[in-house]
Specification:
Layout: H1 2-33, E1 41-45, E2 52-56, H2 79-90, H3 96-112, H4 131-142, H5 158-165, H6 175-189, H7 191-199, H8 203-217
Antiparallel strand pairs: 1-2
Amino acid sequence: LGLRLAFIGSGKVLCYLTFWFLATTHCSAFQAKISVTHHGFSSVINTRGKGFMPRKDFGIARTRILEPVYAGAQSFPDRFSRWRFMQDFLDGDVEDDEINSTLFSVLNDYLKNPPSKSSSDEESSSPEFTPELAAKLERALDTAKQNKIMVFTEDTDDALLQTLDELLPDPQEDEDGHKSAWDILMEMHGRELVKANEANTTPEWRKQSLVARLLIHYDFLTKDVS
């Protein structure tokens, strides 16, 4: 009986020690990944060094898991990873260099590997490849530094933003293409949030919405980046 009690007691001690180890390990790892939130707001950390961008949450405090760092086209092995990157970008969780280099890769890939005229891919939103479009793409790519189109910098050139804006479908000449990019952006970022940002636009939102629509329009979400 004494041996049985000793065995049972040692088993309980072992279980307690195991539970304590797993609990403390899990909690420390979890705490390391959670960003601080304000009561009533989901405080989105702005990785571009401009402080917090509060997103109203109707009195409900939320936590947000910080996402991993991306490192160029090799970080997009499948469609899911590209959609996740876009969502992280819209949430402010992608570094400047990462989005600048991704934009360069997408536009450069389209210029070097344009869709064929016989392509009937219904998922494609990319424009028809023409000499005029190729010239516009070359102008945008010529502004790049170390394979990065410098949209997200401390002092963004307005001329660069205008050059990039010309790569998007004209709302008069291509209403469907123009509307399609905005519709996808609204579905990913939230229709009401996009409307609010458009009603009270900021330089940061102008750049963010411009780059997001460029990535959508040039098939980043549906096709591999070479």
